[in-house]
Amino acid sequence: MRRALLLTCGLAVVLLATAAGLIWAAFSGVGPADSDSAALLTAVDDRTPALTSAAVVLTTIGSTAAMAVLAGVVGVVLWVRGYRSDAVWLVLTAATASAVFTLVKRTLDRPRPPESVRLVQVGNESLPSGHATMSAVVVGALVVLAWPHLHGVWRVLVPTAALLWITGIGATRIYLGVHWFSDVLAGWATGFAWLAVCTGALLWWRSRTQALQSTPS
């Protein structure tokens, strides 16, 4: 447990630095932001009625509100089944992630792509993508909680499916013209960084609980 905690803390530091760098690059218009216009133009050129319908459905299912509901529902199930610390952790992870990306959005106030290319209505700032952030945090948190119960090929299939889902959600935001490419990259990085921070907190709590339970009364 201690080794896993140390590795997770180290990963959290790396991911936080990466997220900070990608957010700065997107806001400053450098690095990945150099590809923003090209990615948006490619998405517009590739649009078809079928792809647009699929993207709208996928982006709705993966919205920040939908991810919050998913975290809440799974949290209730975990609570009822006796996994109360996991339930609280999941809900708090989702809630604090929402607060983090909202704070960054409002602080930086980066404009979204032009309204002329948007296929869905949006109403807040662009950086980072909330869809990308919340899908990475909530779906990733579910994988973290499921991991001890996964064995064999499931330890490959479940994370792979989760990554494909998270990637797909972020891609819809570019396709629909409501986020720049660099917004989505920064959102993924922010989500995974916050997930690592919260996972470190979960491992610390479990380690502390085990230590208290093993201490003679």
Automatic annotation (TrEMBL):
InterPro entries xrefs: PAP2/HPO, PAP2/HPO_sf
CDD domains: PAP2_like_2
Pfam families, per the entry: PAP2
Keywords, comma-separated and alphabetical: Membrane, Signal, Transmembrane, Transmembrane helix
Domain Phosphatidic acid phosphatase type 2/haloperoxidase per the UniProt entry, residue ranges: 88-199
rRNA processing recorded as keyword: no
Membrane-crossing segments per the record: 51-80, 87-108, 128-147, 156-178, 184-205
Signal peptide feature range: 1-19
PANTHER family cross-referenced by the UniProt entry: AT30094P, SPHINGOSINE-1-PHOSPHATE PHOSPHOHYDROLASE
Protein known as: Phosphatase PAP2 family protein
Organism: Pseudonocardia xishanensis
